[in-house]
Amino acid sequence: MKDVIIVGGGIIGMLTTRFLHDAGLDVMLVEQGELGHESTWAGGGILSPLYPWRYSPAISTLSRYGQQRYPALCKAVQAETDIDPQWIRSGLVFTDDRELPAAQAWAQTFGYDLQHLATSAALHECEPQLADIFQSGMFLPEVAQMRNPRIAHAMRTSLRMLPITLAEFTRVTGLESSDGRIVGVRVGDEVFKARKVVVTSGAWTGLFPEMQAVNINVRPVLGQMILFRGPKGLLKRIVLHEGRYLIPRKDGRILCGSTLEMNSFDKHTTDEARETLREIACNVMPALRDLPIQNHWSGLRPGSPDGVPYVGEHPDIAGLYVNAGHYRYGVTMGLASVQMLTDMMLGKAPEIDPTPYRLDAVRTPTVEWV
């Protein structure tokens, strides 16, 4: 009998395992593939929503928490594993200032430094690689990034060093409950018993009947990305242009993403998306036309109606918890949502008000979701 079984081993499942183990609980983590190798591995790692003022304040609250605390986590896991997650404060440049009033109001509310790059000279001084067509913009200097495969590798390695039961390449086929309380999870014909269960299964969360019964609406949203190989230091800033972004990595690689495709669990790439992303990237940063595309991949985001994750205890099954539906910002919001949920599980008062993330909270779907 375990104290807790966690179903799903992405960044949220791995952080939950770490936090509960550190609290002295006997924890088991079950993942259908390799730990950290689905949406966590595939994402861009920008530690901010792309246009944060367009989202619910609930998303900015979780993101701000992560911005402040990820440096310490990265330092800790690097010390444990000698794997550098490559946390870098790159800053985020917007290639226009059309939403300046909304952006300024948001920045004032959440305590961010937002700089108005009112002239072409100011914009190109901030990021010299931008095309000449861009005449003004905005800049959030505090926005940082992590390299997703590296934080996943560091977290996975750190967990493997601890006395924790890790069941990789193991698919949970059902949740077991009795008399309104969770008792464990089913793997094939076998039941693993636990006092509590946390579902952190990302895009797969909505497949459990227990989630459907309370209208937890999480579904897969495919995103494709490409990666250019360039010299170190060519691009300095994260750049956002009409919903597409360029992210400079420490070794000179530059990531461009991403598509939004409301599909099934069919994870694929297409030549059309590759060429569309390449053309957009080169129009934003002309120097990319001379660089080769090194990689093209896709991932399945755990979409939710308004991007606000479901975090809390199941209303009908005691001891069953959910932390899923972070949509495009699993890494961005994950640290905060995990801290909030584990505090609740341990009987502590969460630092963040959990009300907006409750499983029964009203969620108004965005246009792209509909």
Q: How would you describe this protein?
A:
- This protein is an alpha/beta fold and 370 residues long.
- The protein has a domain at 1-79 and 145-218 and 305-370: FAD/NAD(P)-binding domain.
- It is built from nine helices and 16 strands.
- It has helices at 11-22, 39-42, 57-81, 100-110, 120-126, 148-160, 209-212, 271-284, 330-345, and strands at residues 2-7, 27-30, 92-94, 115-117, 137-140, 165-167, 174-178, 181-187, 190-199, 219-228, 238-241, 244-248, 254-257, 293-303, 310-313, 320-324.
- The strands form two sheets. Strands 1, 2, 6, 7, 8, 9, 15 and 16 form an eight-stranded mixed beta sheet that branches. It has an eight-stranded mixed beta sheet with strand order 4-5-3-11-12-13-10-14.
- Helix 3 (57-81) packs across helix 6 and helix 3 (57-81) packs across helix 9.
- The chain is globular, with a radius of gyration of 21 Å.
- The chain starts with a strand and ends in a 25-residue tail after the last helix.
What are the secondary-structure elements, in order, as H or E?
EHEHHEHEHEHEEEEHEEEEHEEEH
Give the percentage of residues in beta strands: 15-25%
Largest sheet: 8 strands, mixed
Radius of gyration: 21 Å
Question: Helical residue percent?
Answer: 25-40%
Secondary-structure topology with pairs:
Elements: E1 2-7, H1 11-22, E2 27-30, H2 39-42, H3 57-81, E3 92-94, H4 100-110, E4 115-117, H5 120-126, E5 137-140, H6 148-160, E6 165-167, E7 174-178, E8 181-187, E9 190-199, H7 209-212, E10 219-228, E11 238-241, E12 244-248, E13 254-257, H8 271-284, E14 293-303, E15 310-313, E16 320-324, H9 330-345
Helix pairs in contact: 1-6, 1-9, 3-6, 3-9
